[in-house]
């Protein structure tokens, strides 16, 4: 009798844990002309712990059958198309049709940031990184993109001003301050209006859904600052229903991160509220950091084609600078507050899709050396795609931006005055599927600036499918960076006669997928940089001039292999040779990671290895190489609760990313995530 009772309880628990039996669902994948898309990868993943990712590939008629247990998300990716996802809520759909938008070729890597209740499934070559222990968006980029490198000076807090870090370089291009790589947030360029550089401490994971990294010039689409590439942060989009998620962690050096996400999607509308708080006492005296941010998004479907949305955000951080160990600082800090909004109107029809975006942002900077500034940026962007024929995709767009601000130093009583610049541009891109194997694309941007006049940026590319599993592509592109207001009018040696910097980039890539469980790529590039802005002369007779040049040549490889259903290996290697390699950038970088999914327990082991780097512009001394390792274990208690523990710098390496700032040794953190 007891055994029977236990058996009944076990069956009841199984039924509670399994709301529906697996059922075959027929997925049909089509393009905007309703033509079948064969060879598309279909992935299904449920939000329940211990459920492996199920995969299938569409046949010649564009269909695939996959046995799923709703609720589940179906994610589809195919060569030449943008990834698409569709949520199945368990209403018994025996078949589903998913429309793919054609995508103009871009050398990009998508990074899935979140592991949501309605999961953002890793699509194609995408990589899930939240489980790896990344604390910020730039952490994620540094850990999984071998050709990108991010400088840091402590356990948390990149900082700004003289000794600030968070410098981002892609293939050796980043500039100082960091104005050679453009950050795109919510579809808008994000930078400090006077200095022209991004604010790394604002790119938390509070509302990030995915991060796309484009290596190489992207000036055709985004103009100035995209000379080395772009990092585009796309916000979290809640699935159907109402979802809330809270994450909290605490660890060494009184370091903590706390994030709240709440959102809902209804028949025609959606909203999301995201907030984050981070703090640390720091691994050195006077190295504390704290920040908080909040993002509110709301949208409504005006019709089956048109959608309107509005997003607002504000953040504030306090970051202390302990100074180099040879000359430590006390009570040296910066406080920054930034906010902004974007109003968007999107359209999605069968053969046309696009967006109109109006945005504005502002910031206030307070630094203990006496520097005070206010800055603002206002602009709009129109980007429309058309598929007039099955073999042709056109993209037309225009954007304009006005940016600037006012700066002064209250100690030296030096007023730098108010300055602003305006630019406007039009751009066009086209892609033609010449044959079943050959795809050609080209683009051009024409931009006019109030300070620099007109400038053009073209790009050309081709992709050829050698076989079903191998694709060879090549691209030529021009990029540029306009001098910032700081370089023109502020310091260290303002020169209003400065001209834009230029780059011509040539690259070739081989992508391979010999089996569904293995993807690999090999890329070689040659970049010629000219008209670079450099500081010349001796103190006090410094001068900024367009006298710099460099040749960057390199190679990058990536491999992702699902060895077994629950074991995945991923690695990447980047080699860079430059005639004028900037300080802190490694000539060799290796990334690696192993994921082991044991159902309710997920284990990640991975890290980064960086080679020797120059410690100064004169190349007189070097920083040692280092290898970092991270171990993180996540345990799912049930559908709502997860516990995790992480050990960073597992090998307790003694290393510096920038000279004079030793990085922390072995440190740990633990926390929980609850979703409902």
Give the topology.
Layout: H1 2-17, E1 23-30, E2 41-45, E3 54-57, E4 63-68, E5 72-77, E6 84-88, E7 95-99, E8 108-112, E9 127-128, H2 137-144, E10 148-150, E11 168-170, E12 181-185, E13 188-190, E14 208-215, H3 219-222, E15 229-235, E16 241-251, E17 255-265, E18 269-280, E19 289-301, E20 306-320, E21 333-348, E22 352-367, E23 371-389, E24 392-409, E25 414-433, E26 438-449, E27 453-467, E28 470-481, H4 485-490, E29 501-515, E30 518-536, E31 543-564, E32 567-578, E33 588-597, E34 601-610, E35 613-614, E36 622-623, E37 626-627, E38 630-636, E39 641-648, E40 667-675
Parallel strand pairs: 1-7, 8-9, 12-15
Antiparallel strand pairs: 1-4, 2-3, 2-5, 5-6, 8-14, 10-11, 12-13, 14-15, 16-17, 16-40, 17-18, 18-19, 19-20, 20-21, 21-22, 22-23, 23-24, 24-25, 25-26, 26-27, 27-28, 28-29, 29-30, 30-31, 31-32, 32-33, 33-34, 34-37, 34-38, 35-36, 38-39, 39-40
């Amino acid at each position: 009798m007891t055994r029977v009772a236990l058996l009944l309880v076990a069956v009841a628990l199984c039924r509670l844990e399994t709301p529906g039996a697996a059922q075959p669902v027929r997925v049909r994948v089509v393009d905007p002309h309703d033509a079948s898309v064969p060879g598309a990868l279909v992935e299904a993943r449920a939000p329940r712990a211990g459920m492996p990712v199920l995969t299938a590939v569409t046949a010649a008629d564009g269909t695939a059958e996959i046995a799923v247990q709703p609720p589940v998300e179906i994610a589809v990716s195919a060569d030449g198309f943008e990834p698409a996802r569709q949520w199945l809520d368990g209403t018994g759909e025996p078949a589903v049709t998913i429309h793919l938008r054609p995508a103009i070729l871009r050398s990009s890597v998508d990074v899935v940031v979140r592991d949501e209740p309605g999961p953002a499934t890793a699509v194609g070559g995408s990589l899930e990184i939240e489980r790896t222990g990344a604390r910020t968006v730039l952490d994620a980029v540094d850990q999984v993109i071998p050709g990108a490198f991010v400088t840091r000076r402590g356990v948390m807090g990149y900082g700004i001003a003289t000794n600030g870090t968070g410098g981002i370089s892609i293939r050796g291009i980043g500039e100082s301050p960091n104005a050679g790589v453009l950050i795109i947030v919510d579809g808008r360029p994000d930078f400090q209006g006077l200095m022209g550089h991004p604010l790394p401490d604002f790119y938390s994971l509070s509302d990030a859904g995915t991060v796309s990294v484009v290596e190489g010039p992207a000036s055709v689409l985004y103009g100035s600052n995209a000379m080395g590439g772009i990092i585009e942060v796309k916000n979290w989009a809640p699935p159907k229903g109402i979802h809330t998620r809270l994450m909290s962690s605490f660890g060494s050096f009184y370091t903590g991160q706390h994030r709240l996400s709440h959102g809902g999607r209804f028949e025609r509308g959606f909203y999301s509220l995201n907030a984050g708080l981070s703090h640390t006492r720091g691994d050195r005296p006077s190295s504390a950091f704290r920040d908080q941010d909040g993002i509110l998004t709301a949208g409504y479907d005006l019709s089956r084609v048109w959608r309107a949305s509005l997003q607002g955000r504000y953040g504030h951080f306090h970051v202390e600078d302990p100074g180099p160990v040879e000359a430590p600082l006390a009570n040296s800090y910066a406080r920054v507050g930034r906010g902004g909004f974007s109003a968007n109107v999107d359209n999605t029809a069968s053969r046309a899709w696009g967006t109109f975006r109006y945005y504005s942002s502002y910031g206030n900077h307070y630094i203990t050396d006496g520097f005070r500034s206010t800055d603002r940026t206002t602009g709009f962007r129109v980007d429309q795609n058309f598929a007039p024929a099955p073999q042709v995709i056109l993209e037309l767009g225009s954007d304009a931006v006005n940016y600037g601000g006012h700066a002064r130093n209250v100690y030296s009583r030096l007023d730098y005055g108010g300055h602003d610049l305006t630019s406007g541009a039009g751009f066009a891109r086209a892609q033609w599927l010449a044959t079943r194997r050959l795809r050609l694309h080209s683009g051009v941007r024409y931009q006019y600036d109030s300070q620099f006049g007109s400038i053009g940026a073209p790009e050309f590319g081709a992709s050829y499918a050698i076989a079903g599993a191998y694709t060879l592509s090549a691209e030529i592109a021009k990029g540029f960076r306009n001098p910032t207001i700081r370089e023109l009018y502020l310091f260290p040696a303002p020169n209003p006669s400065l001209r834009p910097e230029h780059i011509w980039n040539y690259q070739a890539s081989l992508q391979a997928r010999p089996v569904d469980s293995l993807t690999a790529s090999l890329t070689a590039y040659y970049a010629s940089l000219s008209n670079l802005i450099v500081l010349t002369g001796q103190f006090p007779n410094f001068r900024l001039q367009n006298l710099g040049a460099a040749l960057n040549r390199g190679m990058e490889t990536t491999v992702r292999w699902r060895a077994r259903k629950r074991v995945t290996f991923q690695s990447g290697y980047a080699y860079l040779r430059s005639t004028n390699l900037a300080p802190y950038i490694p000539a060799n970088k290796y990334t690696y990671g192993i994921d082991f999914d044991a159902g309710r327990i997920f284990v990640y082991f991975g890290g980064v290895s960086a080679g020797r780097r120059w410690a100064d512009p004169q190349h007189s001394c070097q920083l040692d190489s280092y290898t970092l390792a991270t171990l993180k274990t996540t345990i799912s208690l049930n559908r709502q609760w997860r516990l995790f523990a992480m050990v960073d710098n597992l090998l307790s390496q003694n290393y510096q990313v920038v000279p004079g700032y030793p990085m922390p040794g072995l440190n740990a953190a633990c926390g929980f995530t609850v979703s409902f």
